[in-house]
């Protein structure tokens, strides 16, 4: 059985501050209260979803540490920053992005590093050049289309003695809590890294068609934005 003082942590979740997601901060906070799985909100190039979600969570649970995170698109693929103080600009090089994350006293995750379906996954050559500077490798991503992508990430983490993170990569409410790590309590980035080495993993792959749902959401928002711009609303 899981010790009651351990934390269930989904380390990769999106809110509607990502252009391809629909989940509101209110829904994320409500899921935390109902299911006890703490979401780390990693919106695309934004910390606004994380700020809004943790403001709601901490109203009822003030002891929960605020973890501002962002899935940052670099010129060579995506990197997640955790425990950020401020937003990291997109489209810099991966090396520059890691420098900014470290300068904030934050830590880094490489999400879905071997997913061939996503064009935003970090480039293989960049990953190998920078792997010694990366803090955590996402070894379980519920949206990875193939099982092999997760296996390769886990092998890389083992080879470089890196801890592995677990994420639902939820973009919609019904994906929440599909995958998470169960770890000892932590307060600092260093404690999180150490505790991940002894995590219990709960992983459930979601259907690949959800990628098409995200594409549809993004297309609808782009289309809606263009219509508003033409009408003079924005």
Q: In DSSP terms, counting alpha (H) and pi (I) runs of 4 or more, how many helices?
A: 7
Tell me the strand order in the biggest sheet: 3-4-5-6-7
> How far apart lie the N and C ends?
53 Å
Strand share of the residues?
A: 15-25%
In total, how many beta strands?
A: 9
In CATH, what is the homologous superfamily?
Metal-dependent hydrolases
SSE order in H/E notation?
A: EHEHEEHEHEHEEHEH
Question: What is the makeup of the main sheet?
Answer: 5 strands, mixed
CATH topology: TIM Barrel
How many structurally independent domains? 1
- Average of pLDDT: 91
What's the CATH class label? Alpha Beta
Describe the structure.
The chain is an alpha/beta fold and 234 residues long. It has a single domain (7-207), classed as Alpha-Beta Barrel (TIM Barrel). 36% of the residues lie in helices and 19% in strands. It contains seven helices and nine strands; from the N terminus they run E-H-E-H-E-E-H-E-H-E-H-E-E-H-E-H. The chain has helices spanning 25-35, 48-60, 94-103, 124-130, 147-159, 189-196, 210-231, and strands at residues 7-13, 37-41, 69-74, 77-82, 107-110, 136-141, 164-167, 180-183, 200-202.
């Amino acid at each position: 059985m899981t010790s009651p003082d351990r934390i269930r942590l989904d380390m990769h979740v999106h809110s509607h501050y990502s252009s391809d997601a629909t989940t509101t901060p209110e829904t994320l906070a409500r899921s935390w209260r109902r299911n006890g799985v703490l979401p780390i909100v990693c919106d695309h190039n934004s910390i606004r979803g994380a700020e809004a979600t943790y403001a709601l969570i901490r109203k009822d649970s003030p002891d929960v540490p605020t973890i501002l995170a962002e899935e940052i698109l670099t010129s060579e693929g995506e990197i997640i920053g955790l425990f950020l103080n401020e937003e990291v600009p997109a489209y810099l090089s991966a090396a520059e992005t890691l420098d900014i994350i470290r300068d904030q006293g934050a830590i880094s995750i490489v999400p879905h590093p071997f997913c061939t379906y996503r064009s935003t996954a970090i480039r293989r050559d960049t990953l190998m050049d920078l792997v010694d500077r990366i803090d955590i490798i996402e070894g379980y991503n519920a949206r990875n289309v193939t099982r092999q992508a997760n296996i390769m990430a886990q092998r890389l983490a083992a080879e470089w003695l890196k801890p592995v993170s677990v994420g639902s990569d939820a973009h919609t409410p019904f994906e929440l809590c599909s995958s998470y790590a169960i770890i000892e309590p932590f307060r600092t980035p260093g404690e999180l890294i150490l505790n991940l080495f002894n995590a219990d993993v709960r992983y459930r792959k979601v259907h690949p068609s959800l990628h098409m749902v995200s594409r549809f959401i993004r297309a609808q928002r782009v289309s809606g934005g263009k219509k508003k711009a033409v009408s003079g609303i924005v």
